[in-house]
Amino acid sequence: MASFRKASVRQAGIQQTSMNNTAAVTLVLVTCLASAAFAESKKEYRFTVGPNAIISVDTQYGAISVKSGSGDQVIVTATLKSDSVEVDQQQSGSRIEIASHLLQGANEQTGRVDYEVLIPPDATLNLHSSIGPLSVEQLHGDLTLEGTDAVVNISNVENCHVVVRTMRGPITLAGVRNGHVEIATISGDIHLKSVTGPLVLASSGRGKIFYDGDFGAGGDYKFTTHTGDIEALAPADVSAEFRVHSVLGRVHTDFPLLPHHSRYSMKAGSSFVGTAGKAESAVVLRSFSGRIRLKQR
Amino acid sequence: MTCSDVERVLPELLDGASDGAFLPDFDAHVKSCPVCSDLVSDLKLIASEARQLAATEEPAPRVWVRIAAELRAEGLVFDSAISDSATREPESAPARPLLVPVPGSPRWRWTALWLAPVAAAVLAAGAYVISYKKVVPQVAQQAPTPQVTSPPPVIPAATPPSVPATAPQQVAKEPANPTGVNGAVPAVEAAAEPAPSAEDRQFLSVVSTLGPSTRATYENQLNAVNADIRETQAYVNRNPGDADARQHLMDAYQQKALLYQIALDRIQ
After folding, report:
1. pLDDT tens, residue by residue, B64-80
2. Among A212, A252, A287, B197, which has the highest number of CB atoms less than 10 A from its own CB?
3. Is residue A163 domain-resident?
């Protein structure tokens, strides 16, 4: 009886192994067939540019990742998911335009091109992708990023203008110093961490806005949502004048703010105006029906 | 002479149709009033530019027909107004307003000159004006009389003291006819979602070319933005003194503009 049971177990094990092998082979075949069908290819383009180059990358479908490269070189690595899409590239002096060119029958899968781009750190950069994601790191030239549903990530940039527009895509900025920042999204969330500069504007219709930072020294910060919440986290020694108002929502602050005159009528629970420290920066947090919280770190 | 007097006599003066009896008062007022001074300067410029236009550069008749139809559809003018205007027109003149002055018809010259820009502006601002004045007449009465523009002959509503920059979308969103001829609902009562405006329908038609799922996405976003606009407009109507709410209304319109722009960028 015992030997029969051992044999049954061994037989079951053999069958299981066989099934696993079959599944693996099938998976490999499917992968190969899919790869063949999409005919993925990779292309690299190199350009030499002068100072303050202008680089534009536009793809309907696909990710764009841009990082700081060396000196005067622009290196674009494009991964095309199929033969249904081409990459158009053009250089005019220090202006470079890269664009995905969808061919007949291309769709979101077959028309996808992912770009990895290395550019001089002082270059002006324009990116557009409908679905993204868009990612930019370690630059100090002006940035314009636009996407419909694209997730946008910008980190470690300084001394530049940053303009971001999306329809639904969430936007995250981290480590932006001395930036002139303008962000607008219809329903995406906005996350700002350690973002400072003379002007920081963030506007979302239905998304939320989160800020974690010290509001710099001497900047204008204006965050606006329609129905979304706003949450700002700042250190105890923040130096700013705060004007906070939600028309239909509630507002709350952890800071012991000094009262400050306002031309707007203040209503307890839905608005407050006050200063902290030397009030070097001006911070305006506005929502129509969202909740606003100013929290102390 | 008051600002209203200036607006009344200005067309005649610029046409040269006036005997100039009130010129001293007119000049004195214009020198002392920056608003009227700007108005006179602007109109002189328009008149100067308009005279440069050749007759062949006039818009086609269908343009005027469409403008009239739009005005009528928006409830900004009524058939009687248009027909009255038509009956006043000299028989020798064409059946449409003219951009280029026609000798012998000074009144019509200025009517036409004013109509082109004003019609466009009123198409954009009219709905907001009417709903605003209807809901908060006391505010409108207390505000100073608008000096920047003069009401065109066929437009029953006056220009508001200040029209938000966002007014163009308002035209599309909320029908402005207070008489309800077009089934319009006053903004303050517009809780139910109205039918898409003509421009929204056109917008959706265009984005449809990007595929059904894309259209659905844009339609959802458009509905959300329009809902925000309606909500804010209703609040502003109830609380006309809330400056921050008015700013939110402008923000909401900017959101709609952003949506249009994003779609346009994608289509291009």
Report:
1. 666 666 666 665 555 44
2. A287
3. no
Domain total for chain A?
A: 3
**Residue A176 counted as domain residue:** yes
Chain A 2-41, residues with CB within 8 Å of chain B CB atoms: none
Interface of A with B in 253-282 (CB under 8 A): 264
On whether both A126 and A217 belong to a single domain, the answer is: no
Q: Are B152 and B115 in contact (CB under 8 A)?
A: yes
Q: Are residues A188 and A234 in the same domain?
A: yes
Domain containing A262 equals 170-297
In a domain, A149, yes or no: no
Average pLDDT over chain B, rounded to an integer: 60
* Residues lower than pLDDT 70 in chain A: 1-38, 262-266
A175 & A263 share domain: yes
Q: Are residues A175 and A289 in the same domain?
A: yes
Test A146 with B255 for CB contact under 8 angstroms.
no
Cα–Cα distances in Å, from B255 out to A104, A185, A226, A232, B23?
33, 8, 10, 22, 48
Strand A161-166 to A143-147 pairing: parallel
Dump pLDDT digits (tens) for B80-133.
444 444 434 444 444 444 333 333 334 333 333 333 343 344 334 433 433 444
Please report whether residue A146 resides in a domain. no
- How many angstroms separate the first and last alpha carbons of chain B? 53
State what percent of residues in chain A have pLDDT above 70.
85
**Structure ipTM:** 0.78
Q: CB–CB of B123/B147 below 8 Å?
A: no
Cα–Cα nearest to B121, from B168, B58, B68, B59: B168
Residues 157-176 of A with CB under 8 A from B: 165-168
Residues A32 and A48 in one domain: no
Q: What is the pLDDT of residues B200-235, one digit of tens each?
A: 888 888 888 877 888 888 888 999 999 999 999 999
